[in-house]
Design brief:
Layout (H helix, E strand, L loop, with lengths): L18 E8 L4 E11 L35 H7 L19 E9 L2 E4 L2 E4 L4 E7 L11 E6 L3 E11 L20 E12 L12 E4 L6 E4 L2 E7 L1 E4 L2 E4 L3 E14 L11 E9 L5 E9 L9 E6 L9 E4 L6 E4 L3 E5 L1 H5 L6 E4 L5 E5 L12 E7 L3 E9 L2 E9 L6 E6 L6 E6 L5 E6 L1 H8 L13 E5 L6 E8 L8 E7 L6 E13 L12 E7 L2 E7 L4 E6 L14 E4 L12 E4 L6 E5 L2 E5 L4 E5 L4 E8 L2 E8 L2 E9 L13 E9 L3 E9 L2 E8 L3 E8 L5 E7 L16 E7 L4 E6 L3 E7 L5 E8 L6 E4 L6 E6 L1 E6 L6 E5 L8 E6 L7 E8 L2 E8 L3 E8 L4 E7 L4 E6 L8 E5 L5 E7 L17 E11 L4 E11 L2 E13 L5 E13 L5 E5 L2 E6 L2 E8 L4 E2 L3 E5 L4 E7 L2 E6 L4 E6 ...
């Protein structure tokens, strides 16, 4: 119907009057495929595929061209002339001489909207339809793997992976960062080397729904939902694999399943390729069709097919698995397995081999790779089921099939791999399920042997395994809410959601930050220590922890196999006669180029190799602070209440030296006039920078040339450098310093939890840059020695500055349910990039952890245990109230504490203490459907109650419930709920909202209202205020106006006339949309369109009432009004944002900025400066430059990032400035 079609703006009105900025905050956790041991050539040239014709002209068609009868070559004369090719002796000008290939295996997880390579996420502009691995050769002469990914936006991408700098953008950009020595800098990054635009105008005929690759690598097939599939023939080039123009093969009917047959011959002698399709024809008949073609012949005159209609009673298969036995196929049905051979199809032979199956419903299969010396023709593969059982299927011949249970987990598996470790040492299972969980588990071989001895029909016990890694899934999202968190240093709002389904429903808290992986269990014996140091002595790694009364020496011995909680016995406390344990340690490390440890204590310094030692005393001087940089030691002494700063050069030749030989050579001696609060040293060549903080808020900087002894000094008051009064304190007492030389920036941590940054020039001039408030406790700063682009800041909570991405800090967390205070930390030697290893001293002890240096999603979850559909935050009790679908009436409301993020016990009480009636809030037939936090404004205060709408056998009820927090005798917290009032209604109550003292609720097509009287303490009579044309989905209130969302008639905006109870329609959408939800932003309304997966913006002040902005998303969006904060950087500050949340777990933010806004001008200036754009319209010039390689093309080659705007939906082109684009995202390093 024409009037239901989306009203697209005319071309003259396509670009909105203001600019929308788009930023993807979180990407879906749904796993499409696991690809372990993906082989990457690490030293191949940074070049994409070369075009074989000018502007790829020879490939610009969706159908293969007929062979030119005049020219026998694929290249035309113009192509040969312009590319400078010799038709008889062609030489590719882009051939590169490279050294011997070096390979590295990486692990890839293909998610719904991203590729995760060794834990680093690379986003896509659309959802993945399917992905197939194009495996290279193995053995003595290996070649790397490639990926073929189809997107739902209508693109097919050939992807290769390079080991590059994390700041490398792609072809055409400078790659100076490749020369930096920091090993943590490099990442494995995917690039598109060849792409095809699919026929997105006819979705049922758009290929890419399923992708298949032949075992030989000689053909790839892309399947559409019906009517056709495409054959892509690969060719090897000097720059990697490429595909020739494709060939379309028509198919009669809807394609249900398809696959390549396993070849008869060995892979190096393959001559014929077979491809099977199972289709449903227009006559509702299942038909098997076997397509065949010879490798040596041209496709357009080569393809043959044979069809076999199946019987009408044939069970629809769940999946089709190719078998190596006689190139046959296994059709997996719910209650049987059927083997059909190629001979059955060719000869119309219906004598299929069938095998009974009484296991649970099959969901996925995995075929482990065969060993190179295994020449058997039999098949072995694993079959997963919805009960969590994985079966081992063995097929020795067409007449023989064996089913054995292999292992069982407690979740339904949707995708998995099962990798065997060393012979008979166990298996590693990597799986995902539709309920959101994705994990990596280890199962010892001995335990699996017991399960394999059971028959398929026997009850299979759960397998005991070790959790190696938890991917922390958060899909599907059932409900979502934004909760204000004014006390949080980074996030102004908490993002929470109900995730999962059924008994696996969880309440999930989302944060962006850096995840810390536990390498050991916590060593709790040292939980009261205050400082920690680390050093290597030979091949041994030691930690020194210090108390006010002594020191402890710990040896760290990493173990190979660790579970998700880390190794249990990796930390060992040792005792040594050559270690000072009776006094607190002020500084500890290793002498430069010596296997000798130094330990500074108040009375002297101990030099030791743990076999012998030497102690040098400071005499009457008492050492109160020590810093060592290389062979230079900066020491602060106290003598007769006087402080002095002395600089020494340490010259330690050996512990066997004569006692008269001094290890310290004095360089300078400077007196300190007042007591100091912090001290730090930084070395720049022959110069030392010494930073001193004092309790009056001043900072002293001394620049010393330790070769000549020349000094330069300056000082400043921290608060006097601030441009305005941006702190609530009059004095900022420095607690720590960190100087980052390549940024010329000094970071100052204060005792009140702030971090201030200053530019520091060569002549010691200081200019204030910015401030970050991280907490309320003293800040400890540490610049990483492994990579100076990382700076850690701790104010009981840990934050990481990543200067590759931004100068704003992000949370770094162990992702524990209970947050632990971090007292101090010490950096360890780098062992595995991109992880920064540290020893953390927490309030529960010492733990070794590695910070993953790429930003990721941090989720904190609490299990609800029953299906749930809605939740609200009840701030009076500091708890989240969750509305559950429980059979037990006492469990239909669940409570989670906001602070501890743990479930709370709920006690039901009666409002009449002496009443004999049940105190349960809900009767057996009352099921809550919705709830709302009711604000009751009294003369001197505001109280809050919970209103719950229910359905029952007699219609529905509206209940007012009191929620209180109470403390139990065992010092735990519980929630007490009491029903205060219940209003009966003849129909179920589906949604509730409040405007002033009036309560509005909906039932079916009608909106009602009632008002609470403060005098009578009762609700007034119900009044019908509006009848809607279709059932009401939800109602809400903003700015004193009532918003009503209907099932089929979009949204209505009502305003209450003064002095009347009637509601007047202010706005209604003329297009009959089905919306998920909506909210009002000034005069605009933001809508989430369910049918078109779009975010719509309408201006209620416009007379046309039409949507003036529409953006198609990868998911069905729920829209929310969010505030900007540092953890969700969207390029703007102090503004309100549109947050779109999908059931798939994707979060996308939009911000509307004017072309004259400061944020838009700032972005324009940065683009103009970095990419040398023309002044006047740098943003448009930049977007045009990005799209230039794709304009007017259906396919092409090159080296492109995954998130090019062109790969988005065609209707979205030119509608946003996408901050996810690599070239824009990298501008974060330019922030001032």
């Amino acid at each position: 119907m024409v009037f239901l079609k989306e009203f697209a703006p005319r071309k003259a009105e396509r670009r909105p009057p203001q600019t929308y900025l788009k930023k993807t905050v979180l990407r879906s956790s749904v796993v499409v495929k696991f690809l372990p041991d993906f082989l990457v050539c690490t030293n191949k040239p940074l070049k994409g595929l070369a075009s074989t014709s000018v502007n790829d002209e020879a490939d610009q068609t969706l159908h293969s061209r007929d062979q030119d009868s005049y020219f026998s070559s694929d290249l035309g004369d113009d192509d040969v002339m312009m590319l400078g090719l010799d038709a008889e002796n062609e030489t590719d000008p882009l051939v590169f001489q490279v050294p011997a290939a070096e390979f590295q295996a990486v692990d890839i997880v293909v998610r719904l909207t991203s590729l995760v390579i060794d834990g680093v996420e690379f986003g896509l502009n659309s959802a993945v339809s399917d992905v197939v691995l194009l495996q290279g050769a193995r053995g003595t002469d290996p070649s790397e793997d490639s990926l073929l990914v189809s997107l739902k936006s209508g693109f097919l991408l050939l992807i290769r992976i390079w080991k590059v700098s994390r700041t490398f953008l792609g072809a055409g950009y400078a790659s100076d960062a490749l020369q930096l020595p920091a090993p943590i800098l490099y990442v494995y990054k995917p690039f598109v080397v060849q792409w095809w635009r699919l026929n997105d105008q006819r979705p049922l005929e758009m290929t890419g729904t399923a992708l298949y690759s032949h075992d030989s690598g000689l053909a790839v097939v892309s399947v559409s939902p019906q009517s056709l599939f495409r054959i892509y023939t690969p060719e090897n080039t000097d720059l990697g694999i490429a595909f020739k123009p494709h060939f379309n093969v028509p198919v009669d009917g809807v394609i249900l399943h398809s696959c390549f047959a396993k070849p008869y011959e060995t892979l190096d002698a393959i001559s014929q390729i077979l491809f099977l399709t199972l289709t449903l024809t227009d006559e509702k008949r299942l038909v098997l069709t076997l397509h065949s073609w010879f490798v040596a012949d041209l496709l357009f005159q080569n393809i043959q097919k044979s069809s076999l209609p199946l019987m009408n009673l044939f069970t629809w298969p769940i999946m089709v698995i190719p078998l190596a036995v006689n190139s046959s196929f296994l059709l997996v049905c719910p209650d049987e397995f059927v083997i059909i051979t190629a001979h059955n199809i060719w000869s119309a032979d219906y004598s299929f081999h069938k095998f009974a199956y009484d296991g649970s419903f099959p969901t996925a299969y995995y075929r482990p790779p065969k060993d190179e010396d295994d020449d058997s023709r039999g098949d072995e593969f694993f079959l997963a089921s919805d009960s969590g059982v994985i079966y081992l299927i063995g097929v020795a011949s067409n007449e023989s099939l064996e089913i054995r249970p292999f292992l069982r987990i407690n979740e339904a598996i949707s995708e998995f791999t099962l990798k065997s470790l060393q012979p008979r040492s166990g298996f590693v299972l990597e799986y995902s399920c539709d309920g959101g969980a994705s994990k990596r588990l280890y199962f010892p071989h001995e335990l699996l042997s017991l399960i394999s001895s059971l028959l398929a029909a026997e009850k299979i016990p759960y397998s005991e395994g070790v959790l190696l890694y938890d991917y922390k899934g958060w899909t599907p999202i059932v409900d979502f809410a934004l909760v204000d968190s004014p006390q949080h240093p980074i996030m102004s709002q908490q993002k929470l959601a109900l995730t999962g389904s059924g008994k696996r429903t969880r309440l999930t808290l989302f944060q962006l930050g850096y995840c810390i992986h536990k390498d050991t269990r916590c060593y709790s014996a040292l939980r009261k220590n205050k400082t920690i140091f680390s050093f290597n002595l030979g091949e041994r790694l030691f930690l020194v922890c210090s108390l006010s009364a002594g020191s402890s020496l710990i040896e760290y011995s990493p173990t190979e196999m660790e579970d998700d909680a880390g190794a249990a016995d990796a930390l060992t406390e040792i005792e040594s006669n050559h270690f000072e344990s009776q006094m607190p340690t002020l500084c500890c490390g290793v002498v430069e180029e010596k296997d000798i440890m130094y330990q500074f204590v108040a009375s002297g310094v101990l030099f030791s190799d743990f076999d012998s030692s030497r102690f040098e005393s400071f005499g009457v001087k008492r050492l109160i602070c020590a810093k060592v940089v290389g062979d230079l030691a900066a020491l602060i002494f106290e003598t007769d209440s006087m402080l002095s700063l002395k600089l020494f050069k340490m010259e330690v030749s050996g512990l066997e030296e004569e006692p008269t030989t001094l290890f310290f050579q004095p360089i300078t001696d400077t007196s300190i006039e007042q007591n100091f609060s912090s001290f730090e040293v930084s070395r720049l060549g022959d110069t030392l920078l010494l930073f001193l903080g004092f309790f009056d808020g001043s900072v002293g900087i001394v620049q010393t040339n330790f070769q000549t002894g020349a000094n330069t000094s300056t000082s400043f008051i921290v608060t006097e450098t601030l441009e305005s009064k941006i702190l609530d304190v009059d004095c900022c007492v420095p607690s720590s310093f960190a100087y980052v030389p390549h940024l010329h920036t000094l970071f100052v941590g204060t005792i009140n939890g702030s971090v201030l940054s200053f530019t520091l020039s060569n002549d010691l001039r200081v200019n204030f840059k910015r401030i970050h408030e991280l907490g309320t406790d003293s800040v400890y700063l540490h610049s990483s020695v492994n990579d100076p682009n990382f700076l850690l800041a701790s104010s009981t909570t840990l934050f990481l500055y990543n200067f590759y991405a931004s100068e704003d800090p992000q949370l770094a967390s162990f992702n524990d349910r209970v947050d632990r205070n971090i007292v101090m930390f010490a950096e360890l030697p780098l062992t595995q990039a991109p992880y920064l290893p540290f020893a953390f001293l927490r309030d529960d002890g010492v733990i070794i952890g590695s910070i993953f240096t790429h930003i990721t999603t941090l989720v904190k979850q609490v299990m609800i245990g029953v299906a749930a559909k809605k939740f609200v935050f009840f701030d009076v009790a500091g708890t989240f109230i969750i509305l559950c679908k429980a059979k037990d009436p006492s469990g239909r409301l669940c409570f989670v504490d906001q602070k501890t993020f743990k479930s709370l016990q709920c006690d039901h009480t009666s409002s009449a203490p002496e009443s004999e009636e049940s105190s349960l809030v809900f009767a057996d037939d009352e099921h809550p459907l919705c709830m709302h936090v009711w604000n009751i404004r009294r003369q001197d205060r505001t109280s809050k109650k919970l209103i719950v709408g229910c359905e029952s056998e007699n219609g529905g009820t509206l209940k007012v419930i009191d929620v209180r927090r109470k403390h139990l005798q065992d010092h735990t917290v519980a929630i007490e709920i009491t029903e205060l009032y219940s209003l009966q209604h003849n129909r179920p109550v589906t949604s509730i909202c409040q405007i002033g003292s009036a309560i509005y609720f909906s039932s079916e097509n009608t909106v009602y209202s009632t008002e609470y009287s403060m005098e009578s303490k009762k609700f007034g009579d119900l009044g019908k205020v509006a009848d809607m044309p279709s059932p009401v989905i939800s109602i809400s209130a903003q700015h004193g106006k009532l918003q009503v969302n209907t099932l089929r008639d979009s949204v209505f905006l009502f305003d209450k006339s003064s002095g009347s109870s009637a509601l007047n329609v202010v706005y209604n959408d003329p297009v009959p949309r089905s919306l998920v939800n909506h909210f009002q932003l000034d005069s605009r309304m933001v809508l989430g369109d369910k049918l078109r997966s779009s975010m719509l913006v309408v201006d209620t002040n416009l007379s046309s009432r039409m949507a003036n902005y529409c953006y198609q998303l990868l998911f069905i969006p729920r829209v929310f009004l969010a505030s900007a904060d540092a953890s969700y950087d969207c390029g703007v500050e102090n503004t309100m944002l549109i947050l779109c949340v999908g059931v798939s777990g994707d979060f996308v933010m939009f911000s509307l900025v004017g072309n004259e806004d400061a944020s838009f001008k700032d972005l324009s200036n940065r683009l103009e400066q970095k990419y040398h754009l023309r002044p006047g319209a740098p943003v448009q010039d930049f977007m045009d430059r990005l799209n230039r390689p794709f304009v007017g093309k259906l396919t092409g080659k090159g080296l492109h990032s995954l998130n090019r705007p062109f790969f988005d939906y065609s209707d979205n082109q030119g509608k946003v400035i996408d901050l996810d684009i690599d070239e824009i995202a990298v501008l974060g390093i330019l922030k001032a």
